[in-house]
Amino acid sequence: TLRHIRAGVELPPIAQDKTYDFKYQQSRVLVEEQQILPGDEIITECVYNTATRSTPTVGGYSTKQEMCLGFITYYPRSPLASCLSMTPVDYFFQTFGVQKFYHFNMTTIERMFLRLTDAQIVKKTVSTTPPSFPKLSPDDELNDAINEEAISTLKKMADYSVEGGGENSLFDSLIIEEPEEFRNRSFTSHLHSLPWAEQLLTQRIERAVYRGKHMTFCRLYN
User: Fold this and answer.
1) Which of 17, 53, 62, 91 is deepest in the core (most CB within 10 A)?
2) C-alpha–C-alpha distance, residues 211 and 204, integer Å
3) H-only helix segments in 81-198
4) Domain total in the chain
5) In this structure, how many other beta carbons lie within 10 angstroms of the beta carbon of residue 141?
6) For the whole prediction, is pTM greater than 0.70?
7) Domain range spanning residue 46?
8) Which residues form a coiled coil (predicted)?
9) How wide is the angle at C-alpha 212 spanned by C-alphas 169 and 56, nearest 5°?
């Protein structure tokens, strides 16, 4: 859902897809253009279902990880290149009961997340080559053969995964120092040890991460 907030009041959503399927993605053309005013807020909201999984799902670029992206075409052009938000790192780890790591303070870890410094502990990403999407022209929309090829490619992409790098490697390398009860665990192993079947735990984490503190960053075109 692409939510639209103005002066603290939520307006009707700009776009919404309650039956999203990775294999059948499409762009949506609005029936009526929506005007975005200075000070308006736009929120891209995604709901995930990982009920069939037995281990935590983290955010990342793999199709097996969580992604929530919205691409919006607008005019007139502005110098804004992108905006993102994240939970403050110390608040994020406190949500999972972690107070301190060996070797890295929270400011350093936050910079690693933001890629403002070289995170030497992050392993080099190893990836398979993703399926190649067929080149399309405006006349191909009604071409059954081209459509079948595109659908086949999307199905293959659903199994494409980037492994061995990014946030997972960072979590593997963060070793807990405090509190004592979690000491010497990696943050990844700590996540796996949490009782995810307990609803009180998951509700508390969801409430803290979803409705808790967030920082927003925007980048301008060079």
Assistant:
1) 62
2) 10
3) 89-95, 106-114, 144-157, 167-173, 187-193
4) 2
5) 9
6) no
7) 1-78
8) none
9) 35
Please tell me whether residues 91 and 72 are part of one structural domain.
no
> How many whole angstroms separate alpha carbon 100 and alpha carbon 4?
37
Other residues' Cβ atoms within 10 Å of the Cβ of residue 43: 14
Q: What is the pLDDT along the chain (222 residues), one digit of tens a residue?
A: 899 999 999 999 999 888 877 777 777 888 888 999 999 988 888 888 888 887 777 776 666 777 777 888 888 888 887 777 788 899 999 999 999 999 999 988 888 877 643 334 334 334 445 555 556 565 555 566 766 666 666 555 555 444 444 445 688 889 999 999 999 999 989 988 888 888 898 899 888 887 888 888 787 877
Q: Are residues 206 and 103 in the same domain?
A: yes
Looking at the structure, do residues 114 and 73 belong to the same domain, yes or no? Answer: no
Q: Do 115 and 176 fall within a single domain?
A: yes
